[in-house]
Design goal:
Helix content is 51%, strand content 15%. With 1511 residues, it is an alpha/beta fold. A seven-stranded parallel β-sheet has the order 26-27-25-30-31-24-32, sandwiched between helices. A hairpin with a 5-residue loop joins strand 7 and strand 8. Helix 22 runs antiparallel to helix 31 and helix 27 packs antiparallel against helix 28.
Length: 1511
């Protein structure tokens, strides 16, 4: 017999040092935790005695060995060192003797590593834990062996004089070679001992998820490199007004638009730079990134028909993620050095410390900034050049004019001078000729006066000089004197005088002539100057215009060049503040201003990926609490049926229905796993809460987990308020959710005392008022019986009415069945019609590909028919459809133009023909994959050389030969060149033949199409007739229901149901009932109990009331609670048995991240080590396998709760486009790999498991308590009609009692709970967003909210209802919120104290509900045929949206689009194969709404009937 060597010694007081090890407590610490689970009378005195009781020494026993480690590799640290096979599990056969040391229904397992050295081959134990005795695996290795254990070590001196350490075994001198763990045994264990039948499935799963994790790490690293250098960062003290106020006073506000950017006027909130009038603070952070516009635009590439710049895309992409700004260079070095003194790369924490975490992106705007300074310099230079050029032109022409003028004046002067000379000579001649006559005549008065004067002078002189002689007589004297005078007179030279006169006259004449000549020359010069200036004026102007044009052109060119080369495109990124309350201090403002980089914040993503990777590796390597976990998850079909415990159960929540109780029984009795499928409103949370209580009752610790905090909160709030449950919600203190955590460790004492105190106060109240309660009970019970009696008297009328209604409903059901059959037939015909219509479009558009969605045979026949028209040597070798399209599209004038430029004689044309022939021959040397056929390689190489030679000749020739002809896409180039003259006729002939054949085939299709359309219309007519009959039946049913006698009976019955419901609440009866009779039976039973126990209870109450009052009062005293918090919080924490964390939460909590732990001196918490027995995960359908794995590993029993008809996991990278993969390692991620990751991540693991697991491990709840029956009927389509109301009278409690009139029409009625508003406006989306919005729908939603709020205001006596708006797209939610705010739509009349009004997406609403839900479906594209329906086909999302309402559901959407595109394949909810193919889900939903509710138009809601058109 072999020995089972179990070595405990190494880990008795020492923890393991293996990373991620689940058993990181010492064995003694683990034993202390186990002792708490063992009843006192069964507890062992020591760990050793406990182990020896279960693994007895010296006794052969059966053991079950399993190995959950799929790695199956023995670890060896270095050559020659011992090897380890990790995570081997040993479970002893449970015997009667063992039961005396164990908790009920529990067994023990040991977890360890097989240690192999030369001398010892043992199992080194590192973990010991309890496991349900029913847990096992059919694949365990079963061995019979004798246990031999070692709990300590000893030291002794060896022969060599050295101290050695050796293990002390419970059998002295045992032969270590006689071990169970021989190499053969270990080999068998590795090869065949698996916990699943097909380990390859797990290996494949591991590889797929490991590849995904590697991609996420790689992609995160790549994303983390994203950063941009900022040109500036600053805090902006902005303000905002709503659009409505802006429109009223836009002339004032326009002067204050933030940064003058018009984009800030486009949203519902208009952002201003100053506080104007009622503007509210709207602080922002503005980041500017500047890029050279030329370089930016040169870097653009064409993607999907749009020119995009990759850097811009990256900027916008980064800005939409979690980001922060920092003053430090993300690619720089750290200020710290490593141990060797070398600079390190900068640490992420350094970047954060030197930066500021931003809030949500508000807006990105881009605009150009021109180089104004440089442009001003160009303007100045231009003005200077103009001035200089003009002056040069002026100087040039001044010189020309001066020179010409000077020359002209000189010539003219000469002419004038000659004329003067001529006139002088002529005058002189005249004077000379007249001299003798003038002298003779001497008639010149001037000369005569001169002569007279001379005579007078002579006379006077002679008179004076001539003296009278003495004796001379007077007369003689006078005579002598006169004679002297006369003689003197005679000597006067008259001629000389006339000569002098003439000289003077000639001189004067000359002077006159010269003066006149001068004037004449001056006048001539002036005129000539004017003439010359006029002559050259146009030349001057022309030259100035020319030079100005040159300079203008140069200025324009220079400006354009400067603008082109130096213009900056600025991206201004506006973010909200990082603080949600918009609080910022001066220090932070300075930090923002100093920031130079915007950086991707990878912290949250990095932590999540790390946890996923750890969980995956732990699972694969066997680091699990339950060794059979893989069996449950991957081999559930092999699980044996579980017998549910049917012993008397004490229910903590009395309101559970039978299906819920069945679920609890199965969950508690489960053999390691249980699945609860819980449709909306069926009480999943109640089942979880009761299951937790039952598990705690059995002494088990429970972990409650979910993807969201809200789901966990819901469970914690519903937990029974009993002292046995000690719940803790572990949330990091820096989490926003922390403030709402009522189950924080610091409230342990409060909650513990509160549970006790509350229950005692209730008991005191019941006891104190026992007699009065009994009397009220009796009195109310009598009233109920009276009401029941009244109802029963009229029951015959009601029964007959119900019988009549049942008959009508049966008939309607039969008609609906016929409609369903006809609808299936119609769908088949519709598919046939679509095929024919697509075939016709294919033929019309020359698309001759025989695709799946056309009539393949007809297209092939057409191809064959057309193919006969084309000779391969004549036409290009391309797809036939493309060839035909090219022929049909080319125009005759294009043919004539192209033929005119084809020169067959051109050398280049001849060479081009040769080149094409060679290229054709080369193509013939290749196979279908474009690879050269090996045996034709030589031929290909020779042709290639020839081709190169031809190309060189073509390049060298100067001839022209067009190569980009449209005719070249039709004809072989050689044929085209050789047949230029006949090409046009050939084309004309081909066009005629093609049209002839197309018409022939289109007529054939039209014939079939008309026949099928007729068939379709007949089916439609039949359906319409049946629907009309059903409408008549419905009208008859309504008529019966609205009969006065039936209404009276129904009113009495409704009153009875309401009173019964009130009775149950008033007297705290939680027991569920199906109908009135069962309710009265329960009441009767309770009355009998009161009657029978009255005396005993009254005496008992007298004794208990004082004691209970004293205890409850004491436990409610704040000073007592405060003192006991310090005293008992740690003790209560050590005994906590219900924990709550999210699926992706960290598993370690310390005083650093949970304040209460340090405040109350509580040790660090490791979820892996607290001894979790049961893990319950809610809303499991939303989580992927990798996220579920994180919490699943913490426990031994897994309970998965969800609804696979609701939101599935969403892979955030599923929408990556082709260009998103550019620059990434295609071996790690590409489009095809990403498709695999999408399928992997979005597979609902819960759904797959639910379909595979045996019935005894799962339950589907079917009684829904949330909503009115009409609303249930809408989403019951997704559950194959299996849902039913939770209790009698539920419809009465779910009435909304609202009546709304709009535009003269009743749009909301009290007895109708489901509505559809048909909106006609089209959808749209922002440029940089893939989300969508529909303004028309948004306005309808806002108007409905306004009208409903006004209704509740006008009717304050009516019960207030809560409201929520669900949108299929996030941008629609934002749009609706903007409109509500801008138009100041009030919501103060709704019930918002507990359930505030929410406008959000479907994802945010899962797990939530409201009295009124308005659903905006958004979709209505302008071109429905080419649209992708997207979310409207995601039936899980639509199901969530439709199932959130309790009393009223209003769908807003476009009916035509939804009905035409809303075709889905709906799998069987239970996985039994009853799938619904081509299910027209929206037709069914709209039909249900028409049947039970109302369909209205958008204009019925909007006050302005033009609103639908104007949006």
């Amino acid at each position: 017999m072999s020995y089972l060597f179990l070595s405990f010694a190494d880990h008795m007081d020492r923890t393991t040092n293996i990373k991620n090890e689940f058993y990181n407590l010492s064995l003694n610490e683990q034993f202390k935790l186990l002792q708490k689970r063992i009843p006192l009378d069964r507890q062992s005195s020591s760990f050793q005695s406990f182990i020896e009781a279960c693994f007895p020494t010296g006794m052969t026993k059966r053991y079950y060995i399993s190995c959950p480690n799929f790695l199956r590799e023995k670890e060896q640290r270095e050559s020659g060192a011992p090897s380890y096979l990790r995570n081997v599990v040993v479970r002893p056969e449970l015997t009667l003797s063992m039961r005396r040391f164990l908790p009920d229904n529990q067994n023990i397992i040991l977890v360890g590593d097989i240690y192999e050295s030369n001398k010892a081959k043992v199992l080194q134990i590192k973990g010991v834990q309890f496991i349900d005795s029913s847990m096992s695996s059919p694949n365990d290795l079963i061995v019979n062996a004798e246990a031999c254990s070692s709990f300590g070590k000893s030291r002794s001196m060896s022969r060599m004089g050295q101290m050695v350490t050796f293990s002390v075994w419970t059998i002295d001198g045992v032969d270590m070679s006689n071990t169970l763990f021989t190499p053969n045994f270990v080999y068998e264990l590795i090869q065949s001992c698996y916990t699943v039948k097909n380990p390859e499935e797990i290996r494949k799963t591991f590889e797929e998820w490991n590849q995904y994790i590697n991609f996420r790490k790689y992609y995160l690293d790549e994303q983390s490199k994203r950063n941009f250098l900022l040109d500036s960062a600053e805090y902006i003290e902005a303000y905002a007004v709503n659009r409505k106020d802006y429109r009223k006073n836009s002339s004032v506000y326009d002067d204050y638009i933030l940064d003058g950017i018009q984009d800030f006027t486009k949203g519902e909130m208009v952002v201003l730079s100053s506080k104007i009038e009622d503007a509210e603070p709207f602080p922002l952070v503005r980041l500017n990134i500047d890029r050279n516009k030329k370089s930016f635009y040169e870097a653009r590439v064409n993607k999907r028909g749009r020119m995009v710049n990759e850097e811009e895309r990256k900027i916008r992409s980064l800005a939409s993620d979690n980001v922060f700004i920092t003053a430090k260079d993300p690619e720089g070095n750290s200020e710290y050095r490593d141990r060797n003194g070398n600079l390190q790369r900068i640490q992420f924490s350094e970047l954060l410390n030197a930066g500021y975490a931003l809030g949500d992106r508000f807006r990105i705007v881009s605009f150009d900034i021109q180089p104004e300074k440089h442009l001003e310099q160009l303007e100045y230079k231009y003005e200077s050049d103009i001035d200089r050029s003009y002056k040069a032109i002026d100087a040039k022409y001044e010189k020309v004019i001066k020179d010409e003028l000077s020359k002209a004046v000189a010539t003219y002067q000469k002419e004038v001078d000659e004329e003067v000379k001529r006139q002088l000579a002529e005058r002189k001649k005249q004077l000379d000729e007249a001299l003798a006559r003038d002298v003779e005549q001497n008639a010149d008065s001037i000369i005569l006066s001169k002569i007279a004067k001379q005579k007078a002078d002579i006379k006077a002189k002679l008179t004076k000089e001539t003296k009278k002689a003495k004796d001379e007589e007077e007369k003689a004297y006078k005579e002598r004197l006169n004679a002297l005078i006369e003689e003197a007179y005679s000597e006067i030279d008259v001629k000389t005088l006339y000569i002098e006169r003439n000289i003077k006259m000639l001189s004067d004449y000359e002077t006159s002539l010269l003066s006149a000549a001068k004037r004449q020359v001056a006048q001539y010069e002036s005129q000539k100057n004017t003439e010359l200036r006029n002559k050259y004026r146009d030349d001057v102007r022309s030259e100035k215009v020319s030079i100005k044009e040159q300079l203008d052109t140069q200025l324009k060119v220079d400006k354009e060049k400067v603008i082109e080369e130096e213009t900056i495109i600025r991206f201004s990124l506006y973010f909200r503040l990082g603080d949600a309350n918009n609080v910022i201090n001066d220090k932070q403002i300075k930090v923002i201003k100093a920031c130079k980089y915007i950086v991707y914040d990878n912290r949250a993503e990095k932590a999540k990926i790390s946890r996923q990777e750890t969980a995956l590796n732990n699972f694969y390597s066997g680091f699990v609490k339950n060794p059979y976990l893989s069996t449950y998850l991957f081999n559930p079909e092999s699980l044996s049926s579980v017998q549910t415990e049917f012993s008397d159960w004490t229910w903590y929540l009395e309101s559970l229905n039978e299906k819920q109780k069945e679920a609890v029984r199965k969950a508690v009795s489960s053999n390691g796993i249980f699945l609860l499928q819980g449709p909306p409103g069926t009480g999943k949370t109640q089942v979880i809460a009761e299951t937790v209580a039952q598990m705690v009752k059995k002494g088990k610790k429970v972990l409650i987990s979910s993807e969201t905090h809200k789901a966990i909160d819901n469970v914690f709030e519903r937990l029974p308020k009993i002292a046995e449950i000690v719940p803790i919600r572990l949330i990091s203190s820096n989490n926003n959710k922390k403030g709402d955590n009522e189950f924080d460790p610091k409230f342990l004492v409060d909650n513990f005392y509160g549970n006790i105190s509350t229950n005692m106060k209730k008991a005191v109240d019941r006891y104190r008022n026992f007699r009065r309660n009994k009397e009220e009970f009796s009195e109310t019970y009598d009233k109920l019986k009276l009401l029941k009696s009244k109802t029963e008297k009229s029951q015959k009328v009601l029964d007959e009415a119900n019988k009549e209604i049942a008959g009508l409903e049966s008939k309607a059901k039969e008609l609906n069945s016929q409609i369903s059959t006809l609808a299936d037939s119609r769908d088949d015909i519709r598919i046939e019609l679509d095929v024919l219509r697509r075939t016709k479009r294919h033929i019309e558009n020359d698309n001759l590909r025989p695709d799946e969605d056309v009539s393949t045979q007809l297209i092939i026949r057409l191809r064959d028919d057309l193919d006969s028209l084309f000779d391969k040597n004549t036409f290009v070798d391309i797809d036939l459809g493309l060839l035909v399209k090219n022929i049909n599209q080319i125009k005759m004038d294009e043919i004539e133009r192209e033929l005119a430029i084809v020169n067959p004689e051109s050398n280049k044309t001849i060479l081009e023909v040769k080149r094409r022939e060679i290229k054709s021959k080369m193509d013939a040397c290749k196979d279908e994959y474009d690879d050269v056929i090996p045996e034709k390689q030589d031929e290909y190489d020779a042709l290639r050389k020839e081709l190169i030679s031809i190309k060189k000749q073509i390049d060298a020739t100067t001839d022209s030969a067009p190569t980009d002809l449209k005719l070249g896409t039709i004809f072989n180039y050689a044929y085209l060149v050789a047949n230029v003259d006949s090409i046009k006729r050939t084309i004309e002939s081909l066009k005629e033949h093609i049209i002839e054949r197309k018409v022939q085939y289109i007529e054939e299709v039209n014939g079939t199409l008309n026949a099928v359309e007729t068939k379709f219309n007949k089916v439609e007519e039949k359906i319409a007739v049946l629907k009309k009959q059903i409408k008549g039946i419905n009208d008859s049913i309504i008529e019966i229901q609205e009969r006065d006698d039936v209404q009276d009976i129904q009113e009495n019955k409704g009153k009875l149901e309401t009173e019964i419901n009130k009775f149950f609440k008033d007297f705290e009866i939680a027991e569920p009932y199906k109908d009135i009779d069962e309710a009265l039976t329960i009441i009767k039973r309770r009355w009998d109990e009161l009657e029978n126990d009255f005396v005993r209870k009254e005496q008992e109450n007298k004794e208990k009331i004082p004691m209970y009052e004293k205890i409850s009062n004491y436990l409610s005293m704040e000073d007592v609670i405060e003192a006991d918090r310090k005293e008992y919080t740690k003790d209560l924490f050590d005994n906590a048995n219900v924990f709550g964390i999210t699926c992706t939460s960290n598993d370690r909590f310390s005083g650093r991240n949970v304040d209460a732990l340090s405040e109350y001196n509580i040790d660090d918490v490791d979820i892996k080590s607290v001894g979790i027995d049961v893990v319950i995960i809610d809303e499991v359908s939303k989580s992927s396998f990798i996220d579920l794995l994180i919490p699943i590993l913490y426990g031994k029993t897994v309970i998965l709760v969800g609804d696979h008809r609701q939101l599935p996991p969403m892979y955030e990278f599923s929408k990556l486009r082709d260009d998103d993969f550019e620059g990434l390692d295609e071996n790690i991620i590409n489009k095809d790999i990403n498709k695999k990751f999408t399928a992997l991540y979005e597979e609902c693991f819960f759904k797959t498991l639910f379909e595979r697991i045996p019935e005894s491990y799962k339950t589907m709840l079917v009684q829904q308590y949330r909503c009115h029956e009409h609303i249930m009927n809408v989403f019951n389509h997704f559950y194959q009609g299996e849902l039913k109301l939770g209790f009698a009278g539920q419809n009465n409690t779910k009435k909304h009692n609202v009546k709304l009139i709009s535009n003269g029409r009743s749009i909301i009625e009290p007895d109708k709970h489901i509505y559809f508003v048909d909106c006609k406006k089209n959808e749209t989306h922002e440029q940089d967003s893939t989300s969508m919005y529909n303004t028309g729908e948004a306005k309808v939603v806002a108007e409905l909210i306004r009208k409903l709020n006004d209704y509740f205001k006008r009717n304050p006596d009516r019960e207030k209802l809560s409201i929520g708006v669900i949108c299929t797209y996030g941008d629609q939610a934002r749009r609706i919120k903007e409109i509500l705010k801008s138009e100041k739509v009030k919501t103060d009349a709704f019930k918002t104290d507990v359930e505030k009004m929410i406008v959000s997406t479907v994802d945010d609403f899962q797990g939530d509900e409201r009295d009124i839900i308005i659903l905006s479906t958004v979709r209505n594209p302008e071109n429905p045929a080419k649209s992708n329906p997207g979310f409207i086909l995601a039936y899980q999302r639509i199901n969530v949206a439709l199932s959130r309402a309790r009393r009223m559901l209003v769908m807003v959407g476009n009916r035509r689009y939804l009905e035409s595109k809303g075709v889905i394949d709906l799998p069987d909810v239970n996985g039994r194969g009853n799938d619904r193919r081509n299910f027209r889900v929206y037709e069914e939903i709209l039909y249900t709404i028409e049947q039970y509710g109302k369909v209205i138009d958008d204009i019925d809601v909007l006050e302005d009937k033009e609103a639908r058109i104007n949006g």
